[in-house]
Amino acid sequence: MKKTEISGDNPVTAGLGEFDADDMSLAFSFGRRLGEKIDGGITVKYVRESIAGYDGAVISGDLGVKYYPQIAGYDLEFGVAARNIVGDLKLDEDENPLPRQFAAGALYTTVGKNKTDRVYLTADGVYSNDADAYYAIGCEYLYKGIISLRAGYNDDMEADDGFTLGFGMRGKSLSVDYSVISAGNLGDYQRLSLTYDFGS
For the whole model, what pTM was predicted? Predict the structure, then answer.
């Protein structure tokens, strides 16, 4: 990205060069059944951010609970989560708290006749202490229990129209997920994740 200097109402870019920015997050999650209709989980994560030669890192965590109402004829799940519950990220001399987020969502699942094809429909609402509340909706088609195709809309993505696309592949213990998101003038960014299930 190009460096800019603000002079009055006009940004000046000539001769200021460019800078790089990147971030990384490593997370370990643990979840278990807390009751007949309730699951709980915790995540501990390491977050590192670098921008224009300044680096910072912090350890934080998330908490979540999922509830299965078991309504006859409907495969529904409801969940709540608290994200980034501790930790401040320090870049140079500036110390910034991680955005504390509180989210609630619902999932509806339909199962195909072969029991391996499924369609998932989701809706989420998120409140953050440093930004406006927003909502997100999404759908996923799971083919043969292996390949997933995904699409979604995120009301919080001001840089573009909010639509996202992705796909994934599942194995017995390992899954791979990929998504691409447009960020308007900042270009597209891509996300790749690997997940290993130690319980399989």
Answer: 0.65
